[in-house]
Design brief:
The chain has 14 helices and 20 strands. The protein is α/β, with parallel strands linked by helices. Strands 7, 8, 9, 10, 11, 14, 15, 16 and 18 form a 9-stranded mixed β-sheet that branches. A 6-stranded mixed β-sheet has the order 1-6-5-2-4-3. A 3-stranded mixed β-sheet has the order 12-13-17. Helix 3 runs parallel beside helix 4. The two termini are 32 Å apart. The protein binds ligand BES, manganese (II) ion (MN) and zinc ion (ZN). The site of zinc ion has 5 residues, from strand 10.
């Protein structure tokens, strides 16, 4: 998609040129000033009036009407240099990519150096460009009679810069790796439940693993029985589809140690079971595999980036439905860890399948655990579709991750695990815990439940119930699946590799 060039000249024959402008500049600078002189000072005039605004993310399209080689210019407002950050540059690129898509511009040139400011490193600016362009122009291949067939594609982007070409190439590839992973996650979440069963999810995982030469294993229900995974099997027993436990290992080091492990909730459809969900919006529960999608998305990115750190990807996958043998409220399940669970609500199923996956991941050598799950409606009420909830048993690990999320441009907020919360689920007369102790503090209950299976391993729990799916478009994508947290966890992998 990208070719890197030097020596941008506005007299060149260029159909569409994209230029960044800053609010601090009272008159055009750099390439904009060259355009200005070629246009007899007209850009300066526009700068003075409000017709060409440098306000952050404001895009203005100007036709040069034959006055120079460049025919159309998209000026992208970047605001004040001192206020700029990585997140804002990325969003500004996303905004202009969306407008280019709307105008079906398939071949463009970018005056890359006009986007650079001291606030954001140059290589990050380049990463932001390729990442944002791929994310913002993402389209799900739908099932309509008039198929959208991914009609629009930015075919050619000529990137003009005087900076080092190898640095640019590397940053472009890195941005593409992050976006490609995120778009893998989006495709999976957007796929309806009848077309993405646990078996299909496992097939997708295997195909990504094979593409990158990763080791993989898919456990069947018979294996789960042998291992005593009563919690995962308990959820799956209400469905005709077989549960799967997908395990992929990226062995970067000679020794299988210091293994960063991601565990993703793969509920391909959650009807709630006998604690049935209300009909309104139940269809959105096809997105209840958002955690596993982020994990598979990250697998795609890791496969492209090949960072120097061992990574394991674990996905428990099942449906949560109703049939004659489905689990019932009051049932007691014995998890692989040996801990028993009284089912007080069959709709709190995510934590059940994750519990066994976490125990299995530890057995397979997980040294650091990150679980991702569309776990609770409570986190949707608290944070909407803006921030993901995080819980952790390890300060340093949490801080490292918080930094990664910030760099990836995603919002996270921590929920507490104070001592008294830890007792909240220990109220069963017959089992070690209940799976739900009612509505109070219910996002925290979800995390606390999982922590019982994590035990001492450094751990992060990411509740993405509100953020995995959105009914609004953003600067970086259309409405529907967001692919949230893919980029933050890929950043985490890269941070681990760098140490
Ligand atoms: N998959 C849901 C959580 C969810 C809610 C995801 C809204 C996305 C949007 C989860 O399995 C669930 O049903 N959670 C229950 C837990 C409760 C029974 C303790 C919930 O949040 O109501
Ligand atoms: Mn549920
Ligand atoms: Zn669920």
């Amino acid at each position: 998609m990208f070719t890197v060039k030097k020596g941008l000249d506005v007299r060149q024959d260029i159909h569409t040129l994209v230029v960044g402008i800053y609010g601090d500049d009272k008159k055009p600078t750099g390439i904009a000033s060259e355009i200005d002189s070629a246009l007899n000072g007209h850009i300066s005039e526009l700068f003075k009036s409000d017709d060409l605004s440098a306000k952050l993310k404001k895009v203005t399209r100007i036709h040069t009407l034959g006055a120079l080689g460049v025919k159309t210019i998209y000026f992208v407002g970047l605001g004040l240099r001192k206020d700029l950050n990585y997140r804002k540059v990325r969003e500004a690129f996303g905004k202009v990519a969306k407008e280019l898509k709307q105008h079906k511009q398939e071949e463009i040139a970018i005056a890359m150096d006009s986007f650079y400011s001291e606030a954001v490193e140059f290589k990050q600016t380049v990463h932001a460009l390729s990442e944002a362009f791929m994310l913002a122009t993402y389209q799900f291949e739908d099932y309509k009679e008039k198929k959208n067939e991914r009609k629009y594609e930015l075919k050619r982007i000529e990137l003009y810069s005087e900076e080092d070409e190898a640095t640019i190439d590397y940053a472009l590839k890195s941005g593409e790796a992050y976006a490609a992973g995120t778009n893998v996650a989006r495709d999976l979440v957007n796929t309806p439940g009848n077309l993405l069963t646990p078996t299909d999810l496992a097939a997708q995982a295997v195909s990504i693993a094979q593409k990158h030469g990763f080791e993989y294993d898919v456990l069947e229900e018979s294996d789960m029985k042998e291992l005593g995974m009563g919690a995962l099997l308990g959820v799956s027993q209400g469905s005709d589809q077989d549960a799967k436990l997908i395990v992929v290992k990226y062995k970067a080091k000679e020794k299988w140690e210091d293994v960063l492990t991601f565990v993703g909730k793969g509920l391909t459809f959650d009807a709630g079971g006998y604690s049935l969900k209300p009909a309104l919006n139940m269809h959105e529960m096809k997105s209840d595999m958002g955690g596993s999608a982020a994990v598979l998305g990250a697998m795609e990115s890791v496969g492209r980036l090949k960072p120097d750190v061992n990574v394991m990807f674990v996905i428990p996958s099942s449906e949560n439905l109703i049939n004659g043998s489905a689990m019932k409220p009051g049932d007691v399940l014995t998890s692989m860890s040996g801990k028993t669970i009284e089912i007080t609500n069959t709709d709190a199923e995510g934590r059940l399948i994750l519990a066994d996956a976490i125990t299995y991941a530890k057995e397979q050598g997980a040294s650091y655990l990150v679980d991702l799950a569309t776990l609770t409606g409570g986190v949707v009420v608290a944070f909407g579709d803006i921030a993901s909830g995080v819980m952790s048993n390890d300060e340093a690990f949490f801080q490292k991750f918080e930094q990664c999320a910030e760099e990836a441009g995603e919002y996270v907020w921590r929920l507490p695990m104070f001592g008294p919360y830890k007792k909240i689920l220990r109220i069963s007369n017959v089992a070690d815990f209940v799976n739900s102790a009612g509505k109070n503090a219910h996002p925290v209950q979800g995390g606390v439940f999982l922590s019982e299976f994590v035990e001492d391993t450094p751990w992060l729990h990411l509740d993405i119930a509100g953020t995995a799916y959105s009914n609004k478009a953003s600067d970086l994508g259309p409405k529907g699946a967001t692919g949230v947290m893919t980029r933050s966890i890929v950043k985490l992998v890269e941070k681990f590799a760098a140490k």
